[in-house]
Write a structure and sequence with these properties.
By secondary structure, the chain is α+β, with helices and mostly antiparallel strands. Helix content is 31%, strand content 33%.
């Protein structure tokens, strides 16, 4: 059986040369106001974000953009536009994909038989819960599928 850490390490090595997306964190200051600043970058593989050294669980995904002058029929649309503008104010370029609210996955805990974020050891097999309502699937198959999708989108 291959451990979760070995599967993730092998996946990161296979992603060399494929573009990463931005990792952001919310910051607030009296002078600069609310903004989302870049704190790193990662490959986005569904419910997982992989950096060179960590596995992260995804949360909010947005695209940096100027909110412009629009009328909003829903308060939620106004809030999403403001979040996109915060990323722009924080230094992301217009159109950049930004991941906010992500959390570090304890891969060692998974390898020891536990769970962390969307990862767990299920019947001795490293597995991933691919959606909040979905069940677990083997991590190896999930990563293979997600890497293939990422490569296809990068090429096409």
């Amino acid at each position: 059986m291959t451990s979760a850490s070995a599967l993730l390490t092998r996946t990161v090595q296979s992603l060399d040369g494929i573009a990463k997306e931005g990792l952001g964190e919310q910051r607030v200051s009296r002078w600069r106001g609310r903004r989302i600043v870049r704190v790193g970058e990662a490959w986005h593989l569904g419910v997982l974000l992989l950096t060179d050294s960590h596995a992260l669980a995804t949360a909010e995904v947005l695209r940096a953009a100027d909110p412009g002058r629009r009328g909003y029929t829903a308060e939620s649309a106004r809030a999403r536009a403001e979040r996109r503008a915060e990323a722009l104010r924080g230094g992301f370029d217009e159109g950049d994909v930004v991941h906010v609210g992500w959390s570090v996955i304890d891969v060692d805990a998974v390898d020891a038989g536990g769970s962390s974020g969307p990862l767990a050891l299920v019947d001795g097999v490293p597995s991933v819960r691919w959606s909040a309502a979905g069940g677990f699937m083997p991590l190896e198959a999930y990563l293979r599928e997600r890497v293939s999708l990422l490569r296809d989108s990068a090429e096409g």
